[in-house]
Each structure stands twice: as C-alpha cells, then as structure tokens.
Specification:
Strand order of the largest sheet: 7-6-5-8-9
Mean pLDDT: 84
Radius of gyration: 20 Å
Low-confidence stretches: 1-8, 14-44, 276-280
CATH topology of the largest domain: Rossmann fold
Number of strands: 9
Largest sheet: 5 strands, parallel
Structural class: alpha/beta
Distance between the termini: 37 Å
CATH architecture of the largest domain: 3-Layer(aba) Sandwich
Number of domains: 2
Order of helices and strands: HHEHEHEHEHEHEHEHEHHEHH
CATH superfamily of the largest domain: Aspartate/ornithine carbamoyltransferase
C-alpha cells in the first residue's frame, strides 16, 4: 500500500462519515487483498473469505484462475445458475453508478443469489451520520458479500476492516476500481487467447485515467507487453507508471501525440475520456476534450483484428459509427465485467461452480 493511499485511508477512518463529492467513475487503481488461504482441495489460488480492495496483492495465478473461472461461467450459464442459492450480496453505492452497480447485482442474480443495498448516500443511514464502519458491521449480519462504491479514496479498505464478510471494491473515489481491470483482462483473453505478447496502445487522458494506470501495472506483472502511450503533453503518463514499465525487463513503451501515426502497429487500442471532474480549469478541459476522436477513417489505418477497448462512459472520443466495427470491444467489456464479477463473487464466498475444474488442477492433468 502506498504512503499516499495509507494517509487517505487514515483520513476516512478518522471521520468515518460519508462526505459530499464526486469520485471519477473511470478511476481504477492497482489493488490489495487479504492473504488468501488454500481451499479444501489445497489450491493456493483460492480467494475464499478475502476482501478484494486492490489488485496489488492478488497473485498472477489467482488472476489467471478468475479468468478461467469466468470463461467456464460463460460457457455453462445454466449449469452455474444455482451456485449461490441462498446467498445475499449487498451493493452499498454511496455515489451514482449505472454499469458497475447493475453488473455486480446481475452477477449475483445469475448465480442464484439475492441482492440488497442502496444507490446513493441519501438513501442510507449515512444521511443520519452513521459511519462507514458501523454500516459495514451492521450489513455484515445480513449478507455473504459486499460490493462498495464510495467517493472517498480509502473507503473500501476501511469497509473491509470493519466487515465480517468479504468486501469487493467497486470504486473508491479516483483511486481504485479493480474489477474494471479484471474486465479489461478478460476482454483481451477473449479476443486474443492471451494477455501477453501484445502491443497495447492507451490513448487520451493518461494523467488522470486510473483505469490506464491499473491496466499497465497488472499487464507488467504478467510481462511481455509493448505499450504505446498516446496523449497531449498536458495529459501524459505519470512518471511512476513509466517507472513501473521500465522496471519490467520484458515490457517497453513509446510516447507519442498522434493517434493516426501509431494506430497501425497496435493489437489493442484502449481509449479513455478526458475526465472533466479532474480539471480545476474548465477552459483546459474544453481545449483538450476533443484531442482524440476515433472514427472510421482512423480505423481504416488499424490492423484487421485490432481490439478497441474503453472503460465507459464515453463522451465523444469514439464516434458512434465505430460501434458496428467488429473490432469494437467496449460493449463486450461490459459483458466480461459481469462474468468476472460472477467469478469473483462466487470465489470469495467459497461456492463451487458445478462441474468446474480449477485451472491449476487442469494444468497438472495435462
């Protein structure tokens, strides 16, 4: 955990009261999970009973297991439909959300479980001054797992410390959103059959785009990825992210400002919106928001199998005409996000998918 994040956690823990403020819905961080015990079969990739706040402390084998688990779920929808019968998920969303909240809820419903919760701090006892810790200690008596979104950085970790059931971070302010990165990885796996040996272009707001930072961090852990970082000078990739790439011998990067110049070399193009909420000066936002617009003309310069990703919501950085291009994968990301949340929810609860063979066991049998 970084010193900066630790101070944010302490700040939230001290007042433990929800404040007003908007967190970036595109925000993602790199992530932490409590130490995962081995399951009954002895596989160390088990996440049973753990709270997933960030991805930093989840091993690459655990991530690979989740990807494998999600693929199985997608191919066996009816088989897994009662995996979580009798289970209850709480979605505690202290700020507005569409895709993330519905994705978490749909994931549990498709597994046979039920959902309770709220979508807005004004709908909960926080409006009376209840702390995050007290809310989680209370809700833990009702449910088997919690998904929490909060406008303050560090709130998810505070929640996980207070809860007696697993807590999954659904986004805490502009800091972390680990399940979005899992959705991104699942989309790469679906499109290419791998998440390594790829040239990945990231375009737009690379300064404030936490999804970008998290994806780079996680891909560097797997290695063998070439990054093409496309942005205006005002929105370049932070040095600590570049340092992470430099620290990975099998990864490399180039920086450029012209999307048309670099698009032809890419296997993946990850577009991001310029986040208005991150700017103090609206004039700067208005000047930069239309720097990159992916349209049919630019797509003609790309490889025939390049995949276009976007964490959504988009504003105007991807023209609607691109939606019909088979290379557009951003709505596929939405589906993969649901599948990864199904995989994660069932994994942290400890419910076995009927007929599922863990990846490590499968590899040992080959």
């Amino acid at each position: 955990m970084s010193v900066e994040y630790a101070s944010q956690v302490d700040s939230v823990a001290e007042d433990s009261i929800v404040g007003d403020g908007a967190g970036g819905s595109d925000a993602v961080g790199s992530a932490t999970v409590q130490s995962a015990p081995a399951n009954a079969s002895g596989y160390p990739s088990s996440l049973v009973g753990t709270s997933v706040v960030t991805l930093d402390d989840i091993s690459t084998s655990q991530i690979s297991e989740l990807l494998h688990r999600a693929q199985y779920i997608d191919a066996h929808r009816k088989t897994v439909a009662h995996t979580c019968d009798g289970r209850v998920l709480a979605t505690l969303f202290y700020e507005p959300s569409t895709r993330t909240r519905l994705s978490f809820e749909t994931a549990m419903l498709r597994l046979g479980g039920q959902v309770i919760g709220f979508a807005g701090a004004q709908l909960s006892s926080v409006s009376k001054g209840e702390s995050i810790s007290d809310t989680l200690k209370t809700v833990s008596n009702y449910v088997d797992v919690v998904a929490i979104r909060h406008p303050k950085e560090g709130a998810a970790l505070v929640a996980s410390r207070a809860a007696s059931v697993p807590v999954i971070n659904a986004g805490d302010g502009g800091h972390m959103h680990p399940t979005q990165t899992l959705a991104d990885l699942a989309t790469l796996q679906s499109r290419f059959g791998r998440i390594q040996n790829l040239t990945v272009g990231l375009c737009g707001d690379l300064t404030f785009g936490r999804t970008v930072h998290s994806l780079i961090e996680t891909l560097c852990r797997f290695g063998n990825v070439n990054f093409v970082l496309i942005s205006p000078d005002e929105l370049k990739t932070p040095q600590y992210v570049l340092d992470r790439i430099n620290a990975t011998p099998t990864c490399s990067y180039v920086e450029m400002s012209d999307l048309a110049e670099g698009i032809g070399d890419l296997d993946v193009l990850y577009m991001t919106r310029v986040q208005k909420e991150r700017f103090f000066n609206e004039d700067d936002y208005l000047r930069l928001r239309d720097t990159y617009i992916l349209d049919a003309d630019k797509m003609r310069l790309a490889k025939p199998d390049m995949a276009v990703l976007h964490p959504l919501p988009r504003v105007n950085e991807i023209a609607v005409e691109v939606d019909d291009d088979p290379r557009a994968a951003y709505f596929e990301q939405v589906k993969n996000g649901m599948l990864m949340r199904m995989a994660l929810e069932s994994a942290v609860i400890g419910d076995e998918l009927p007929g599922y063979e863990p990846l490590q066991q499968k590899e040992m049998r080959v």
